Structures are given as structure tokens and as C-alpha cells.
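Example 5.3 — MoxR family ATPase
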Amino acid sequence: MENTSPLPASSGNEPFAPTTVSEDTAFAPRTDLSHLSQHAEAIRRELSKIIVGQQALAELLLTAILADGHVLLEGVPGVAKTLTAKLLARTLSVPFSRLQFTPDLMPSDVLGTAVFLPNKSEFEFRPGPIFASIVLIDEINRAPAKTQSALFEVMEERQITQNGTRYAMADPFVVLATQNPIEQEGTYRLPEAQLDRFLFKLHVGYPTLEEEVTILQGHHAGLGSAALESVQAVLSAETLRELRQQVRRQHVEPHLLDYIARLVGQTRAHKGLYLGASPRASLALLNGAKALAALRGRDFVTPEDVQYLAPHVLRHRILLTPEREMEGQTPDDIVQQIMQQIEVPR
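Solution (predicted C-alpha cells):
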């Protein structure tokens, strides 16, 4: 939602004696996360200049960026899906590109094409808009299967292959895609193989009454363009790579790894599911939980981190049976059932 109003050593001979450890020392973090917290807060502050509410959405988008994952944003028109993604890219000092997917879009329009140079009598590859660090794809489900398939390799392997030559993407590389869940005319259903490449699928809902009043007040004040220009880049690509390395070193207890595996494994045995989640979902849940814990100031993952992210990681990776769909159940309902069935480690 738019808000156009500005915001504010010993010798070894001594007798053994037990070591006294203070409570502060016992629970001191093994990793200093203050640097990460400062940058995360700076990004939140920049987003809050324009976006009203949506704190949970901002946290999940930051989680995906730190976990090096792509995000699919789903919501009706006008709830600031594109605006949020665009502003997030604006807070990062990295190359940004935007693609509007349409039924006539060709793979070369996304990846690039080889151009013949008569003076050299050879072909030269001209990179397409996918060659950016943050790529925003509007209405991703409007492109046909041939164009959708062009994203398979680049989203998973961070590279494309053209005429036998490999071209690597920049680091970082994140795809933020939007789609409308209501309008189906002129759209193409995303294949499961492509959905599986998104770390999260996030639902973007309507604002509350108070938030919508704030949106109206900001527009009425006539500060829209000034507020948009006030959003500044606060995180460089080099710093983001350093923060990602820190996230990868987050501590995870062995029983939590077992918990993640059992949660995802249960989707393959649930009677209400026609298709369960793959091991890629387990990796997504692990990486996402590490990043979320870091954003919340902890250098260790808890079961609550896993439970909070499970619907966002699994909802687009499972398929309900026709019977469950007729009963009106949703993927989120099945994920909640599975979490209730699996014992939570302590």
C-alpha cells in the first residue's frame, strides 16, 4: 500500500575449580548480528517512507534476499505488489530491471539474442533484461509456456546457455514476480517445475481501515513524487554477499534438521495431497529459517522459525486432491494439519 507522507592462560598446576558463567555470558550470541540488524532496519526505514503496514511482507522479502531465494507475490491489483518489489530493489545498490510479461513475449525478449555484425562477420550476444541483480517480473503468468521455460535454467543455476555458450548471472541475482490470483483470462498456469524454483509464495492482502486512511491522507497531502524520490540505496552488493555468508553460518541443532525433514516428508504421505514437496522444499525451509532467525537477532534457528515459514515455503509446492479442493480446503490448511501432526522438538 502506498503512503506518500514522510515518516519520521594457566600453568596447569592449579587445583581444579568450577568456572562460574554469568547468565549474560551463557546466552551471549556466537555471531555478532549487529551489522545485519542495522542494514535490515535501514531497509525497513526506507520502505516505510512509502509503504503503509505490510511489516510481515517486508520481513519475508528481506528473509528471501538474505537466503538467496526468489519470491512469487500473489494478490489482487492495487495492493502494492509491484511497488513493494520496486522499492525493495531501490534500497539495494545493485542493477535492477523490470519485465512486463505478455502473451506475445518471446524467450529472446527475456534472455537476450545473438546479433550478426557484418563488419566482423560474426555474431555477438546482446544480453536481455534478465541480466540484472534484482529482476521484477509483472504478471508472470501471462507469458506462454515457451517463455516460461526460458526462466528454468536462469532461476535455478544462475546462468543461461545460448548457442553452446554459458553466460553467468550477476551475484546477487533475485527474481521477484507478481501474479493476480483472480483474473484467469489470457493467463497461463505456471508449471510445478517453475513454482518449485521460488523460495516463497507470498499472499499480499488488503490494508486495514486505519492503514487505508493513512494512504488517503498521504495522497491528499500531495507528497507522492517527493516521497518516492526520498527512498535511497542503503545496501551494496558486496555487503549483501557478506551478510549472506553470515546467514549461512547460523547454528541449527540436529533435531531441527530432523523436524524439517519430517514436515516436508509428511506432505508426500498426506491423503489429502496429490503431490508432495520435493527435497528442494526442505532446503528452502532450512535456508529461510536461518535468514529469519538472523533478522530477528538470533544466531540460532528455533522450531517457531520453521513453523512460521512453512506455509510460505510449501503452499506452491503441493497439490491437493480433487476431493479436498471440492471441500474448499487450501494448501495452507493442509500445511497446518501437518504441523499439528508432527511433534515439535524442544
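Remark. Confidence is low (pLDDT under 50) at residues 1-27.
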